[in-house]
Amino acid sequence: MVSMARPFLADPEFVNKAAEGRVDEINTCIACxxxxxxxxxxxxxxxxxxxxxxxHETELQYLKKAAAKRVxxxxxxxxxxxxxxxxxxxxxxxxxxxxxxxxxxxxKIAMQIPGKEEFKETLRYFTKRLExxxxxxxxxxxxxxxxxxxQGFDHIIVATGISPRTPRIEGIDHPKVMSYLDVLLHxxxxxxxVAIIGAGGIGFDVAEYLLHDPATPLPIPLSTWxxxxxxxxxxxxxxxxxxxxxxxxxxxxxxxxRKASKVxxxxxxxxxxVHRATLQRNKVHMLAGVDYQKIxxxxxxxxxxxxxxxxxxxxxxxxxxxxxxxxxMPTQANETGPRFHKIGxxxxxxxxxxxxxxxxxxxxxxxx
Length: 368
Hints:
single chain, alpha/beta, Rossmann fold, FAD/NAD(P)-binding domain, globular
């Protein structure tokens, strides 16, 4: 029971589903700690990123509605998947649209990061929920507002997510510059010396991704992980701890941020130290209070504490925030026609937050 604490937050019906042979319907804990342990250590109510009803069962209820409505959800990322499946479970007629040929949104990118492989289980769960709840799924086509209006929906939920922000830096269009989507989604080749602009969650993820040797398939083998952290499973040493193996990073990486605060200060309370330790072990240069001056053939020109320097790097990767994709939202309120709603990154792009996105989707759908 102790070892199943977080899994029972993710899915209180875990045992029943397993006993009934419905294993593919289990909502799997992804060990993110964001809504359970991080909340606990901040004196907040523990809940669950993948199950926002956890510890909110009397407040967030998925009840069948007396009158079924026609609902369109645009965007099949975490917010859209949550909204679509909850709305359908409440008895509404739901259609889900996405321009990609598969569901997942940002989770498809996140699950490529070492240590986040289990994110694919959330997509497996939602894919099954779409089937069980009867959501009509339309993939591979970018739907327009006119097409949505023509179909007579009562509600249109915009969960279209974000686009990466391009900072204003001289030379930002230089061939050395790439976005994090170029790296994680489009798999463009990256050189051995890299500067990452932006040290939020995405910046840390990109750094960890670039430190991983693609010759070693994910998930990282247990023996490799034990060696990296200096863990002796045989407990022959005091505390089961041995000297960690020396790191041999495959890239020289600079992780940069404008803010003068500690790099990584905004990461999760119970998991942020792991990411910082991983980067420190692999000799990533983490610099705060950086002023970006220009980008040219020499590399990235910066100033830190009034001292200028040039980072001679092969590529500069932009992880400098996002902007909401809201082109489907009407420019003015209509008294007639469907009601439009924004959730997830389309509502607030400043910090991509799957916990907020899934919760917003569920709460909105339950209120329709």
